Amino acid sequence: MSLASLPVSTDPVLRVENVAKSYGTLKALDDVSLTLKAGEFVALLGLNGAGKSTLFQLLSGLFAADAGQIVISGHDISQSAIPALAGMGIVFQQPTLDLSMSVYANLIFHARLHGMGSATKPRIQAELNRLGLSEQTKTTCIKLSGGNRRKVELARALLHEPRLLLMDEATVGLDPASRKGLVDYVHQLCRERGMGVLWATHLVDEVEDVERVIILHKGKVLATGTPADLLQQTGKIRLADAFLELTATPKSS
Ligand SMILES: Nc1ncnc2c1ncn2[C@@H]1O[C@H](COP(=O)(O)OP(=O)(O)OP(=O)(O)O)[C@@H](O)[C@H]1O
């Protein structure tokens, strides 16, 4: 049975509780808690160095938190990493395609890692079709534009039909039209597939239409709410000004 055909659970697809992570004496994450439900698009907004990538590295099991708990689709990542990660797709900030291989070879490699069987080829074709890349299936990735490389990374993240999609500054290096295209496409997927999406960025224009914004600053959650909540809280008219106001006056630790 594919993950997509499992009954929809009302439990959060992601629960992060009191998570901490330090590099030596630097607290990159300090008592961070958040939840994400199925079908919710949540933005993790933070300046450079806020801790976004560190959080994503913990969520993807690259290393362990010093304290706290991470539960993905009901599985504690520290105890049940395989089922936790099986239901998650991720696009990292740094490109991770093997540029010497074709689009198809990159995707089939990922499919095998996820133990996908006979459904693999139609799934690859379906994701590439939707992204307008069906003609590029056999193209070596080094020949693709930056925007199309990102789309292949997204197709790869979606291949095993995750319940949770993590996007870590996934629009870095894209032109404004490609950026908007990617944001709009992921919003559409979130609605259609009931996927929870955590979208990390420092670009405020990418989060104007999200259901909830979590502002991370110097490793701490400074504020959380709808864009309207954040405007009301700061008395600002533009979300960019609200973000600047909140991050200019950090709480003392
Ligand atoms: N491997 C590491 N060793 C030491 N310090 C690190 C390491 N990785 C990150 N840091 C530090 O931890 C803090 C959080 O970094 P992180 O990359 O998680 O932030 P970010 O919000 O993703 O930033 P950016 O938007 O610039 O990518 C920063 O002060 C960074 O310098």
From TrEMBL:
MF annotations from Gene Ontology: ATP binding; ATP hydrolysis activity
Q: Which domain of life is it from?
A: Bacteria
What region holds the ABC transporter domain? Answer: 14-243
Read off the InterPro entries from this record: AAA+_ATPase, ABC_transporter-like_ATP-bd, ABC_transporter-like_CS, ABC_transporter_ATP-binding, ABC_transprt_ATP-bd_su_PQQ, P-loop_NTPase
Q: Keyword check for Oxidoreductase, yes or no.
A: no
Keywords of the record: ATP-binding, Nodulation, Nucleotide-binding, Transport
Keyword Thylakoid applies: no
| Record-linked PROSITE patterns | ABC_TRANSPORTER_1, ABC_TRANSPORTER_2
| NCBIfam families in alphabetical order | PQQ_ABC_ATP
What family does this belong to? Belongs to the ABC transporter superfamily.
> Mind telling me what this protein is named?
ATP-binding cassette domain-containing protein
Name the source organism: Beggiatoa leptomitoformis
The taxonomy runs: Bacteria, Pseudomonadati, Pseudomonadota, Gammaproteobacteria, Thiotrichales
